Amino acid sequence: MSGKGEWRGVGAAGALAVVCFSLMPTMAAAWPWSRDMADQISIKPEHGPDSVRPFPTRSVPMAETPTLIHVHDRDGAMKLVNPNPATAESIKRGRKFFQIFCTPCHGVSGTGDGLVGAKFLIRPFDLTAENEQKVMPEGYIFGTVEFGGALMPSYANDLAPSEIWDVVNYVRHGLVAEGAKRSVASNSPPGGPPR
């Protein structure tokens, strides 16, 4: 039963094999195709320990330019002093960022009762506790937001240093006060607080 149909099948398979073997070097050099632009010789300034670089010498900062923080880890941030005064405007901005980034885990009250935080085996820190409010320096809160913690992600790519300091001002000067107002409002009779 060795007919022409059998030879035609071998010829087609052989031609396909030749085409595949001829394309292999091209495909091997481009593998993986999705990483070609990312894996190149170019400098990636957003990576590495020096990702936050100082201004060049002889540069003149413009007004309202957010200054860069030159610390490389959470422990280094402990000694930082808050450059943003705790004004009503700073606390208001910090409240907005807190609601966006912190509320899912820490909750509106800051006690660690957020919807996402409830799914964790370890409850998120209570930001209204005395340790976070009075014992630890403000740089501790800044460093935790900037670099993350054991379970907490870093928000350095989402918030500028000045915005993180606004969050620190809200946690230290607005969070507990707002929680007390919410508590009074929820415990008051329907007609409002007693007079």
Structure description:
This protein is mainly alpha-helical and 195 residues long. It has two domains: 32 residues; 113 residues, Cytochrome Bc1 Complex, Chain D, domain 2 (Orthogonal Bundle), CATH 1.10.760.10. The protein is 47% helix and 0% strand. It is built from seven helices and no strands. It is elongated. The chain starts with a helix and ends in an 8-residue tail after the last helix. The mean pLDDT is 79.
Structural descriptors:
2 domains, mainly alpha, 0% strand, single chain, 195 residues, elongated, Cytochrome Bc1 Complex, Chain D, domain 2
Radius of gyration, Cα only, in angstroms? 29 Å
Q: What is the helix/strand order?
A: HHHHHHH
List low-pLDDT spans. Answer: none
- Number of domain units: 2
Strand content: under 5%
Global outline: elongated
Task: Give the rounded overall mean pLDDT.
Answer: 79
Total DSSP E strands: 0
CATH homologous superfamily title of the largest domain: Cytochrome c-like domain
Distance between the termini: 107 Å
Helix coverage percent of residues? 40-55%
Known CATH architecture of the largest domain: Orthogonal Bundle
Q: What is the CATH topology of the largest domain?
A: Cytochrome Bc1 Complex, Chain D, domain 2
Largest sheet: none
CATH C-level category of the largest domain: Mainly Alpha
**Structural class from helices and strands?**
mainly alpha
| Number of helical regions | 7
